[in-house]
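retry 2 of 3: previous attempt timed out while embedding TLP. Reduced batch size to 1 and resubmitted. Inputs unchanged:
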Amino acid sequence: MDKIDLRSDTVTWPTSRMRQAMMEAEVGDDVYGEDPTVNELERRAAQKFGKEAGLFVASGTMGNIVSIMAHCGRGERAIMGHSAHTHANEAGNPAVLGGIQPWVVPVQPDGTLLLEDIRAGISSDDPHFPRTTLVCVENTQGAAGGQPLSAAYIERVGKLCREQGLRLHLDGARIFNAAVAEGTDVATLTAPADSITFCLSKGLCAPAGSVIVGSDEFIYKARRIRKLLGGGMRQAGILAAAGLIALEEMTERLSEDHATARAFAEGLAHIPGVEVQPERVKTNMVFLKLHADSRLDGRMLSKKLEEDNIILRPSGVYHFRAVTHYWIKPAHIDFVLERINRYLA
Ligand code: TLP
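retry 2 succeeded.
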């Protein structure tokens, strides 16, 4: 990459192996189910997650809304976290596109939703209330700082859903980060879920695309909704070819991004004027805050760093989220720390 871009892992460029595979990809018309590379990606993804089938979609947002609409009918309620991407960052799509009512519960600092909060959101069978059909959980939970949720926690949510006759959807945009951080595999981590969306185009470096996995019956429904939303792609094998490399070669190395993030947070903790909690850095996200009496506010620091080819954008006046990824190496972090220290000293 030509810049040290810490805004997100969505900014990652494809690797040279991906570009080569894209060039050589066998393709067909995927709306007819005839793209061999897409079919292979969907098969491999389902196998990795221990589910029956997969569906390639354009983005994480599309994966979530297709899944939510496949689970919930109009006028039904989906329970989700207040800062979950599905609620806070997808343009209100459950309500706009699906006529679905989100029921929002607080996301805890460790990224979980309290079971009692979920339970309180489940409506009783009364014509006054929307019928509750779905719980959505995000793993890793981005707004809580990329917190990974454990298999034991997901199992507790799954058990509650089974007891209450609800379905469970996981927004696993960064599920491989969660699996690496929890020292487990994605099949174990997601076993209780009815559907999972995961992204190929974040830390895994593919240029575009996400995959939904679930039962044959669920994916059959999801395929129809993907078409309804205009997400039927044609020779999408060009993209799926990169996705296959993402799946096969890029998941285990995410531990390197976690180590880089932790090193960044530890370095920041030594810089006067910066507030950060390195012990909260479990995956590839670092949340930091400048003191209100710091020499520069967020916007000014961001501007200075840009002169050094470092891209770090403030959210609010003093807060930043930095995300590490394949293209951020330890030497980049040393350089960024040196510059932040210089500008704030
Ligand atoms: N997240 C982006 C921004 O939209 C905030 C980022 O930079 O982190 N689920 C989660 C948990 C996500 O973080 C994202 C993207 C999505 C879904 C949506 O994925 P895309 O961008 O592929 O639609």
